[in-house]
Structure formats: structure tokens, C-alpha cells
# Entry
Amino acid sequence: MSRPTPLRDVHEALGATLTDFAGWLMPLRYGSESAEHNAVRQAAGLFDLSHMGEIFVTGPQAAEALDYALVGHLSALATGRARYTMIVDERGGVLDDLIVYRLGDEEFMVVANASNYPKVDAELKNRAKSYDAVVEDRSEQYALIAVQGPRAQEILATLTDADLAGLKYYAGLPGVVDGRQALIARTGYTGEDGFELFVANEDAVPLWHALTSAGAPYGIKPAGLSSRDTLRLEAGMPLYGNELSAELTPFDAGLGRVVKFDKPGDFVGRSALEAVKDTAPARRLVGLVARGRRVPRHGYPVTKDGAVVGEVTSGAPSQTLGKPIALAYVDTGVSEGLAVDIRGSQEPVDLVELPFYRRNK
# Structure
């Protein structure tokens, strides 16, 4: 049985197509996926992300516990800032990618993917045992609503006195939005500017309606999982279960920069990651742009002269580029003469550097 978010009735009233995603009943689309995608690129989109997990780590040694548990240097994070990081196993395999917010000297919020946060919670509790820190999964207490797009700041500014203009990317601050307490974070998963609002469950529905009304003159649209996926794909952002898994290290995914070997003390997976940090991975994550109209999909083989040299991890038509695009792991050193095997047909593709799309700042 899929779990509903606090906004289920709103999604149903909007005529959303609901689907199971990581055990949650989530809006896939409200109408046209392309209209939702383009609204985020050109104006703003409104997303329900209440399926994400919020795990709090608090106490005098919360920072040190996170330094040991994760690959990032979280004790160096200033209060009010956020950082993209990962939790890996002893072999260096990625268990999840995370955003960690430092809310105070002794308080952090770890935001984990919906499919992984029970596992992340258990791992953090186990890894924090030797520290004066408490790990608490508070996911049931929070709804998460995102406003993403070039008009996001203008829209949100009509509902809050918080200093949005002064809020940096990957930073957050407590504020009042439409009379409701929220953590306002300048983060997102679309490649656009935008905000993610962490609020109490009971505030989700009135806040959604307030944002809908405030955004109407700017062209805001509710947006579902389908457009969120195509937006993050254009931005070259990895999705756990596709580009990231326990079988891959951060270095395999081209994200070795998130591993901080210069932080004090040991951390889980350090030895395994140090052993591979200077070795080119057998395959690297690349972008592919199709020359034709057929779409490379997850799991399709990438070939060169008929031999398999890689595998597609994510693929979709790109509304922005007007062509099908894909992320794929391809043998290191291979860059030309590639095709994707789409049901027995070798469809030519061009390898490109990521991301496919970068917003104008």
C-alpha cells in the first residue's frame, strides 16, 4: 500500500496521475509533462517532495559524528549552509547521496532519498554510537514543497519577509511563509534557481494553495515526478538507483570531489576510496545526444562497431534541446562512433560533456 503525502487530496483535485514511487503515492504528472517541464525552465513549477527523508543529528559531537559517517567535511560547514555529500559502505559503494543542512552549532538535518532514508537512518545511528550525538528520523513530521524556476524568488517574495535575495545557493534560513514557520532552503533538483520549503504536515495544503495563488500571475504550474526527472536529466544530476548505487563509488560517478580526505580523523569507506582515487575507473558517466528521434532508455546497451561498451542509466526526450538525451556509463577512452541498441536497432548518438543544460545566472 503506497503512503500518501499530506497533499494527496490536492493532487487528486488537480487531476494528477498518481503512481507508486519508493512506497509513496506521488503525482507523476498533472497534464502535459512538456508543459510542466517548460514552466520550470521559463517561469516556475510547484513540486510536492514530501516523500524525502529528514534525519536530524544533534548534540555536542554531531559534527564529528557526521564527519565519520559521511564522505564530506561537515564540521567545516557554517551554520545556515548546506552541502551535497554521500554515505558509502566500507567498500566505498554509494548507499545514498544526501544534502546536509547545518541548522545550528549542534544541529544538522540530513535529507535522504525516499527509497533510502530508513537505511540511512539506521546507518547513521550505528555510526554515531561512539559520539555524543543523537540521530532521529523526523521524516513523518515534515512536508517538503519546492518552487523551482527563474520566477521562483519573485513568487516566494510575495509570501515572506525573509531575505531571499541574500540567501545563497545551498543555504537555508528559518522564516515565515504565508504566516507559517518554514525552513527556506535555496536548493533544488531541476537545474534552475529555486527554493525548497520544509514545513509541518498540517501547513502543507494551505501553503500549496498560497503558492499557487501567488504564482498564478507568473505562470506557475504544479509539476510531477516525470518533469522533475527530465529537468534533472538535462542538468546532468544523478539519480540514485540509476547513476548511483552500492556497486559504484563516488569516483566511478565522476563525483570524487565530494570525498574529503583532508578532514580530520577516519571515515567509513576511507581506505577503499583512497585505493581508487588516483585510478581511472573502467567506465565513466557521460552524456549522449541521439541523432534520431528514438529515445535511449535505462538499461539499453551502448555499442561501438557492434560491441557493447556501456549502458544507459537514464534517458528521455529533452524539451530544451529538442532531441532525446541520456546519461550512460561508457568504457573509459571511448568517445566516438557510438550507438545505442534500441530493441535491436543501432541508433547513433554523440557523446557530450555534462550537463546538457546550464541556466543563465
Summary: The chain has eight helices and 20 strands. The mean pLDDT is 97.
